[in-house]
């Protein structure tokens, strides 16, 4: 039954989105006065390649940030479950700090506190582009959450697994790598994918700091085309549709996985 | 308050260079307080709106009219799968441009200001999560309990108010807490449409006094304390509503 | 024809005629006729899946019938214009899974329906609820929450909750099936006491000894039909139908 409703949802929601978009563009067209040299929609079509170029950067930032967040998050998660308090406490602190702060605040912190260039030991200077800094800024909250997901997953493995591994003379390290982690990975995949989707949806915030991604380019395009108020609705709607087309299939797939894993356990 | 701490922070600035200007400069102090106050107001309004939308949406999802159910489903999918910052800009600039202006006795102001649009946009965004949260809470109420109420002659409305709602609310509290905390954090997005909440106030201070690291620390502390307070309030609510012996 | 207007207490208080019920393709009830007089205690026995629970649930309208007529005090239960409230104050039901409201105390569970549904005076209801709880041996448990009680205690609260509506007929749907063996008896004692006071009772049960002891008449159902009915001594000692004989030889 749930399967049925979900499948219905899968094709109806995008259909409705498309309908809403079309309706809004029609509304935008209706607003036009005849004196306008080019319609808002025509302007949008001209600028689409430019916006798509920006979107490519959103994609690159999201992938890099996710990779960085996954590696650091898993490490941090392991540190969180360490029996050694000197390792555990700082890991908990970092996790807590980045989980409970807003994305925007973390982004600001990285943008303003990390220097725009670093000097290598040899004396060479390397410029750090803003989009790289933004990528790190987006990775940090995801890192903290992956750390927490890992900790939660490890905690959810029954203690009998640890005990039987110990009785088989596994070390703590071996137990983690060969026994515990393989059981965690499966249940970590759906939340991991959810965080990727959320991360991607946060990347347009980089526009606030002047990164030329999709949102920045959309605003620049509207400006360049004459900054007419009737641009706003079609341009922003196009941008939302762009992200929707990318993220929606992903969240459908995540939900399927979640359901399958829930049924399997 | 400021009189007591000002000498300490002035000396701190002179000796170490750490410039916590809001703690000795009355002007910045007021900016900080106002930013915190607006932020709290904003968060409360956003949460309230998102809860109302969540309850209405969860109710509408059970509607017999197909079109209503589709609309709710589409609403959820659209707002959960597009960037919140673009949603906010779309509301503020896109819809803000076509909302009527109000005559303020000589000059004109938009009917909904930036604060209002931030509440609407982020509230609608958060509501899309609350609909699902409330729905799963309602689904967790055993059908047999509802049936017992039916057998005792309760009307559908009485069943909803006295049986389904109190139980569903308890079932969805943990998920609701998460979403409320996440919304409180998302409220900082209002910065981009210049709502004078804490992030905006402090960014004003750091561009005047060039004390970014210090203000950053304040900002982090503010949000961590805020999240801790919300978490504390919600867990005490959860404890108060806990049913003795239930779910153990 | 008997209707709500000309019904008198010497006519059947519950009357089922040619009741059919299908769930999709699956026909669960295939023409049931059954009559219960005021003050009678009726037990319905039979193998699992023979439609006993469906049958009892049609009496207060929880399960709508596909065809046929169900009358309580002359009133057609499945009339779409029926005042459901009037029916439900007349017919109480106790479920296998107790189905108490987990967020209300024992006393609140018992008081809720009379106060909210019948709009009765709260103090009167409270007094009645307390005496009903005392009757089912639950003094001192008024302020406990359902999850703090044993299954047998919860089931007795459920009985008191139904009785507080002052019904004319009580339905019991396998009320001991989910209980631990040691708490079954306390529930049966409560039902027996009720029957002794003249309450009209319809029970679906697997407790054959209890059915034999308490009932005025026993109905044996199999595959959606009533195979035979009669006084308990006859059904249990000299069953006529081979299906009844086979069933009883398995369970007794």
TrEMBL record, chain A:
The keyword Coiled coil does not apply. It is found in: Cell inner membrane; Cell membrane. PROSITE patterns: ABC_TM1. The keyword Transport applies. CDD domains: TM_PBP2. Coiled coil: none annotated. It is a multi-pass membrane protein. One of its GO terms (cellular component) is ATP-binding cassette (ABC) transporter complex. Residues 55-248 form the ABC transmembrane type-1 domain. Residues 1-30 form the signal peptide. The chain crosses the membrane at residues 54-79, 100-119, 193-211, 231-250. It comes from the Bacteria. GO terms for molecular function: transmembrane transporter activity. GO terms for biological process: amino acid transport. Pfam families: BPD_transp_1 (PF00528). Keywords: Amino-acid transport, Cell membrane, Membrane, Signal, Transmembrane, Transmembrane helix, Transport. Belongs to the binding-protein-dependent transport system permease family. HisMQ subfamily. This is Amino acid ABC transporter permease.
Automatic annotation (TrEMBL), chain B:
Part of the binding-protein-dependent transport system for glutamine; probably responsible for the translocation of the substrate across the membrane. The keyword Mitochondrion does not apply. It is found in: Cell inner membrane; Cell membrane. One of its GO terms (cellular component) is ATP-binding cassette (ABC) transporter complex. Residues 36-235 form the ABC transmembrane type-1 domain. Keywords: Amino-acid transport, Cell membrane, Membrane, Transmembrane, Transmembrane helix, Transport. Its main location: membrane. The keyword Transmembrane applies. Pfam families: BPD_transp_1. This is Amino acid ABC transporter permease. One of its GO terms (molecular function) is transmembrane transporter activity. GO terms for biological process: amino acid transport. InterPro entries: AA_ABC_transptr_permease_3TM, ArtM/GltK/GlnP/TcyL/YhdX-like, MetI-like, MetI-like_sf. The chain crosses the membrane at residues 36-58, 70-95, 107-126, 212-231. PROSITE patterns: ABC_TM1. Belongs to the binding-protein-dependent transport system permease family. HisMQ subfamily. Gene3D superfamilies: MetI-like. It is a multi-pass membrane protein. PANTHER family: GLUTAMINE TRANSPORT SYSTEM PERMEASE PROTEIN GLNP (PTHR30614:SF20), MEMBRANE COMPONENT OF AMINO ACID ABC TRANSPORTER (PTHR30614).
